[in-house]
Amino acid sequence: MRNVILARLSIQQLSAIGECLEPIVLKGRVVLQEPKRPVEHVYFMESGLVSLRVIAARSMLETAVIGYRGVVGTSFLWGGHLSTHQSVVVFPGSAHRIRVEDLLRIMKAHPEIKDHLFQYVQALTFQCVQTGLCGIRHHREERLASWLCLASEATNTRVLPVTHDYLSSVLGLRRAGVTETLIRFEQQGLIRKMRGVLQIDEPKLLKEKACCCYKLVSAAYASSSVPTLWEEQAS
Questions:
Q1: Distance (Å, rounded) from C-alpha 181 to C-alpha 93?
Q2: What angle do CA 103, 105, 111 make, to 5 degrees?
Q3: pLDDT tens for residues 171-181?
Q4: Is the dihedral angle over the CA atoms 96, 100, 104, 109 positive or is it negative?
């Protein structure tokens, strides 16, 4: 299992949950969950990236990104039967899916699994709250650098299949401003832009461009996971 939460389970716990896990392919732009709709499945991410969004009055705000360290569909842990967010696949990948009722049954027999999920949800909730503050307090360059760093950590890669249009939409920035900032990052040797792909060449220097929100969110996830290739290379 590449998913960090599943990888931390004991053999007994993994055996119990493994009987109900279904491997699936996540295609780009697929909506896994819609707000105010019943949560039927929980997705343990193996690869790729999912965007967690709040939708209101025809406007969209991305509150978090979820990669192989996380889980999509955790609102059931609070007793809610309806999704609070829209979950959309941004980068194609894979996951292990389980029905909510099966996971609830397994957690009753193995409460340690619930403990692992709660530890992750604490970091996810912190990111959602911090994202809202970041959008109000921090400048374009800082926010863009933070998003790139967090997305790279969530996917454990320096190569991101992301476009200027997408970054503009999820960060609520003008496309021209995003393009201008990325050109500046490239001139400074931090990134390289190719068609539909952005490669981070200097992760350590890009981190220095990011606002304090990146460091806080990264630390929250690091406290409940293992070091990643990205973190090792950037240290």
A1: 28
A2: 85
A3: 999 999 999 99
A4: negative
Q: Residue 117 carries which side chain, given as an amino acid letter?
A: L
Q: Tell me which amino acid residue 70 is.
A: G
End-to-end, the C-alpha distance of the chain in Å comes to 25
Strands (E), 77-216: 86-99, 159-160, 191-194, 197-200
Amino acid letter for position 226: V
In order of 2, 75, 117, the CA distances from 68 in angstroms are 7, 18, 14
Q: Which residue ranges make up each domain of the chain?
A: 4-134, 138-234
- How many CB atoms sit inside 10 A of residue 126's CB? 16
Beta bridge partners of 27: none
Question: 143 pLDDT band (50/70/90 cuts)?
Answer: very high
Name the fold adopted by 4-134: Jelly Rolls (2.60.120)
